[in-house]
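Summary for the steering committee. One of the milestones for this cycle was to obtain a three-dimensional model of the protein with magnesium ion bound, which we needed before selecting residues for the alanine scan. The sequence and ligand used are listed below.
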Amino acid sequence: MEKIRMKTPLVEMDGDEMTRIIWKMIKDILLSPYIELNTEYYDLGLVHRNETDDQVTVDSANATKKYGVAVKCATITPNAQRMTEYDLKEMWKSPNGTIRAILDGTVFRAPIIVKGITPLIPTWKKPITIARHAYGDVYKNTEMRVGKGSKAELVVTSADGKESREVIHSFDDTDGIIQGLHNTDSSIGSFARSCFNFALDVKQDLWFATKDTISKKYDHRFKDIFQEIFDAEYADKFKEAGIEYFYTLIDDAVARVVRSEGGYIWACKNYDGDVMSDMVATAFGSLGMMTSVLVSPDGVYEYEAAHGTVTRHYYKHLKGEETSTNSVATLFAWSGALKKRGQLDNTPELVEFAEKLEKATVQTIEDGVMTGDLVALSNLPNKRKVNTEEFLTEIRDRLEKML
Ligand code: NAP
Ligand code: MG
């Protein structure tokens, strides 16, 4: 078979630890034999980030803007222990945070569903995608402890120097705490557009929920911006695609989600998305089956796995012990990126290959061949645990039959 050609480069961001090992295996076993891989390679492994003073992360994000599609391996976010382990010059920031800030994107997370692994919520038949706003609120807050007898106020100084004040609370007879949050109309607008675009892309309904009945200015602003942008720019496109935009209160949303079949996108404010994505991921099964894509409001896509670098497995691997690490989410990051590249470049053979790769992967698990994390969850009668590399060669055997 002749190798598939790629017209435009794909931005490839390599990473750390066990996922770096898996990255190379996926390329060697499942991609390079079939595709003339045309990637612009950036090594975001911690060693190289440190050597380049983290410039490589910025460069990779800018390349993503240029080419429109990237695939990223999981990376270490340094902490005190990593400073010593890697002898770092600085405690470099989270690469995902840096990339997100440059692309101004929204993160969409969706589980990969296979037969034999049933969600903990029995009504869930289709994936639920969580769209988390990744700017502001409690993640960029200012908070203080306040002493008894103090009065806390919100003070805003406008451009012309005028002050407006609102009392938060008078702490007459006890100490206490206060917190200042913010968000911006432009970030909320970008979030809304990313969600509407993604919904059109995957042809699924979009739900959005806040607590606007209690937070009459803050949360209400989110509700209004979503509605204004929807009415002005998306209502007709949604009708044409046969999908809906639906707003409700966050408590009502939670109740509906639990009773639902799945198959929609649930847009959440930053904190709600943090909490709900962990709840949804756990209820669907393994972290190794959760995909993640960052979508910018101008339509740039960066695909990755939702999990980290699987450090515990990596240390086993370094000791020469056998590992059984799930590569599905990383593999779907590749197939997602290749599919998007193929759609944008109008190379249907690339799209078709990526779809077959996904089918072969699901088929492998449904045949009972899986990694350790899934063996613990699967209710198939004849399941067999394989190691990290065997799992990929089992996928290749099935893929070959489809080509
Ligand atoms: P993690 O790498 O996601 O792993 C946590 C645990 O979840 C693993 O020890 C493993 O459990 C299980 N697990 C996760 N992915 C798996 C897979 N593909 N196959 C099988 N089991 C899997 O999270 P972490 O240990 O908290 O973080 C490790 C490093 O990753 C940190 O340096 C962190 O900064 C980084 N991180 C990066 C990203 C990113 O780049 N997007 C995201 C999160 C974390 P068992 O050990 O029980 O088998
Ligand atoms: Mg969380």
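Key point for the committee: Residues 74-77, 96, 287-288, 304, 307-312, 325-326, 373 surround NAP (ligand 1) (CB under 6 Å).
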